[in-house]
């Protein structure tokens, strides 16, 4: 037992370096603020453990916003009735399922067939093409959502916070029949296609690399400043804008409301920061 506890303490310490917080906050070039999250619900150690170990390319990409795109856009303001809760994936590396279910939930609402939040647990327990709490592939997740679909969160709420994954259920939690909703077509978009799709149809699944300093993000427009690349992560793209002269993408995370800007964050736009602009995923909805 002592060795188990010691191993976890060492792992937690390796996942968070308080000197990074000081370094970022003293950096005059920094466009964001860092925070020491020790003592909150957010656990850097659990995040590091659950990350996909795939490292995304960060080569600069040709990107210019469409002339028709507004200077800023926020789905939370455009469609407040479809704002999703900020979830906490905790000890489950199921970010791929949170990003897939979240983007479809809001896209269904925008299309006129809102069903409430959809179930990431349905994907985690049932999508045999992915690896449940041990990671998933965005293209395979969208294809599963097209062919098999997913049910509502009220039918199958998230129960895998500990990393334990129950078998694919045959009934809703209350014993009723499971109804699943599907993408009509899947989407894989280049960065120059993203704003039009986001503005007209709703949020998208986005991936990016997690560096050590991102674990300390508190507010502002994130740019990598300190630390090593720890792996990649999936989130929901909700919009874009500009803050203090820096253009950004707006995204929803699944690390609880204790992290970031109450669960949301901004990341620099136009430079493929941390690989964020390498590809976006989702689908179209027909009600």
From TrEMBL:
Keywords: Hydrolase, Signal
Keyword Hydrolase: yes
First-tier enzyme category under EC: hydrolase
InterPro entries tied to this protein: Papain-like_cys_pep_sf (IPR038765), Pept_asp_AS (IPR025661), Pept_cys_AS (IPR000169), Peptidase_C1A (IPR013128), Peptidase_C1A_C (IPR000668)
EC number assigned by the record: 3.4.22.1
Domain Peptidase C1A papain C-terminal, residue spans: 69-284
Leader sequence residues: 1-15
Gene Ontology molecular function: cysteine-type endopeptidase activity
Pfam families found in the cross-reference section: Peptidase_C1 (PF00112)
Family listed: Belongs to the peptidase C1 family.
Annotated protein name in UniProt: Cathepsin B
């Amino acid at each position: 037992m002592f060795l188990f506890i010691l191993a976890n303490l060492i792992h937690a310490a390796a996942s968070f370096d308080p000197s990074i917080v000081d370094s970022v906050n003293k950096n005059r070039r920094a466009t964001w603020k860092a925070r020491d999250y020790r003592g909150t619900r957010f656990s850097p150690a659990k995040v590091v453990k659950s990350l996909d170990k795939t490292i995304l390319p960060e080569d600069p990409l040709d990107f210019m916003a469409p002339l028709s795109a507004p200077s800023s856009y926020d789905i939370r303001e455009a469609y407040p009735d479809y704002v999703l809760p900020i979830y906490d994936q905790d000890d489950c590396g199921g970010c791929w399922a949170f990003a897939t279910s979240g983007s479809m939930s809001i896209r269904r609402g925008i299309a006129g067939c809102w069903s409430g939040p959809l179930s990431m647990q349905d994907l985690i327990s049932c999508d045999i093409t992915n690896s449940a709490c041990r990671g998933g592939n965005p293209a395979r997740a969208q294809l599963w959502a097209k062919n098999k679909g997913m049910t509502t969160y009220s039918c199958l709420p998230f129960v895998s916070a500990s990393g334990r994954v129950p078998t694919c259920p045959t009934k809703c939690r209350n014993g009723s029949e499971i109804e699943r909703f599907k993408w009509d077509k899947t989407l894989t978009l280049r960065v120059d296609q993203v704003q039009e799709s986001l503005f007209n149809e709703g949020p998208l699944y986005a991936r990016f690399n997690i560096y050590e300093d991102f674990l300390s993000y508190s507010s502002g427009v994130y740019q990598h400043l300190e630390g090593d690349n720890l792996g990649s992560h999936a989130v929901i793209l909700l919009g874009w804008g500009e803050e203090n002269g820096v253009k950004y993408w707006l995204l929803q995370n699944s690390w609880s409301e204790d992290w970031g800007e109450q669960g949301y964050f901004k990341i620099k736009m136009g430079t493929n920061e941390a690989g964020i602009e390498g590809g976006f995923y989702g689908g179209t909805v027909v009600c």
